[in-house]
Every structure is written in structure tokens, then in C-alpha cells.
Amino acid sequence: MNWRGKAIGGSIGSMFGPWGALAGATVGHVLVDRKNVPTGKQSLRLLAVTAGALYELARADGRYTTQEDAAVRAILNEINQRLGTALRPHELAYLIDDASRIDHCLTRLASTVRGNPPLARATVSWLWRVAVCDCDETPPETACIGAFALAAGLSEDEANQASILFRRRVSAASDQALHAAFTALGVPYHADQAQIKSAYRTMSQKYHPDKHTDLDPDIRALTAEKFAQIKAAYDTLCGIGGTSGDWYSKQADSGRLAPAVPDAVVLCFVCRQKVRLPPAEHLSSARCPHCQTLLAFERDLAEQLV
User: Fold this and answer.
1) May I ask the CATH class of domain 3-163?
2) CATH code matching the domain that covers 172-237, chosen among 3.40.50.720, 1.20.120.450, 1.10.287.110, 3.40.50.200
3) Which of 46, 123, 183, 273 qualifies as a cystine partner to 23, CB 3.0-4.6 A?
């Protein structure tokens, strides 16, 4: 193994002490101020602790999907490029593959970025990219990012602002109600309208009172109660996707805002890649495949993003 390989291996096993502060100063200088590009162990250690943190977040719900792996690799490649290509492609791949060996990286990364709010917000956005890349943001991932933001020194408002490109705005109370509704229908949190409708049809057919008229009255009462819960959950969720007129996106040809139209080609608000919108029932959950940000927003927010 040459010196770069040794440096990478050393980075994976030694994320302690003053290196956290040094890496924080380094990445803040590069990713926030965009000035001189550092080289050497600072960049390698920064990439290593970030790789471990992204992997730890992806595993928060007990699984590591192919979409999450692709998102982690894309994010680290972007950081590597901004750091002046600190690692060559095969070396970066080596680092990512060994990310699972780094312990408590979310805590270490939070310590690294604490005191640098712009960098802390950027780091939270990287975590959100991983959490939503498989269209299945889970409560453990949400809780994990919330704890990270707090440890990184961000206020609740700052943490919410960092997530605004990746998740729909909901209050704490309505967020709890949505979680309960998704659970009642047995679908993943942030499931799209097609999944919600399919689950409702299946469960309503199973528990509809008309299908249990020959059962004991107590059993009929239980199935009627279950059916009522299913109907209430569906009523809660059936409107969250909105209609095409509720969402605005950037037109691919002019870059101007316009109501989101199914199958239209639009520009991502962040990376400006051209993406084709999905059918109407999936508009609210449509994401850029390159940076995982939502492709359509409420008009007031969309106007702020242009």
C-alpha cells in the first residue's frame, strides 16, 4: 500500500482529538468560503468521517439500500471534487467500502461542524439526501438527523431550513398525525398517492362491515372500528399529494416558474439538471435523481428558490 493507501487506512481508524477541529476548519474554508483547496491528511480524514456518518445515517432504520449506497457515493464524490480531488476514484471507493468500520461518526462529524453554522447546515442537507433517496424517509432517520442537528449546534429553525428542499413542510402535530395515518394503512412514511390508494382499497375490502354481517356482534364491532381507523387514515393522507396546480416547478426551456404538469421536463432547483416529472399522483414526491431534492414546491417556496 502506498502512502495514500496508508493515509486512507489511518483515517478510518483515527477520528479523534484535535483532528475534528482541524477538519472542521478545513471543510469550512473549502465548502463555505470556496477559497484555497487543502491537501493531505485533513482532506482524507474529513472524507472518512463524512463517509462513516452518511453510512451510519443510512443504517439508522436497520437497512442499507442500493439507492442509499448510490447517494452516499455521489455526495462523497462531490465533496472530494470540492476538496481538489483529494482521492482518486478507486481510493474513494476503498474509503466508502470501509465506512462501516468507523464508529460513532455522526457524533464526530457533529463535533467537527459545530461552531460553523453554514457548514453544519450543509452537512444536514447531505444527511437528508441519503434519508430520502429511496423515497422512504423513516422515523429513525428523521430522529437521527434531528439529534445530529442539535449536536451540531443548529437551532430548530436552522435545522428545518436545512431540510426544506427534501421534505414537505408539516407542523409537529400534523407530522405525528401523518405518521399514525401511514402506520394505520401499513405503508411507508411519505408513500406516494398510488401506494396510499392501493393500501386503502386492500384494507377497506378486508375490514368493511358489509363483509362481516354473519360474524359475532363483538367481532363486527371490532372490524367496524378498524374500518373507521382505515377510513380516517385515508382521509388524512389522500390530500397530501395535492393536484398539479398546487405545485410549481422550473420550466426546462426558460427556467421560469410554472404549475407542475405531469410528464413535463423541468429543471432541478438545486443542480439544474433536466428531469421529466412523473404522473400527477406522484408529483408531490418527485425528486431529482442527481441531488434528491424535490422537483415541485408550493408557490411561495418555489418563488424563494428561483
Assistant:
1) mainly alpha
2) 1.10.287.110
3) 46
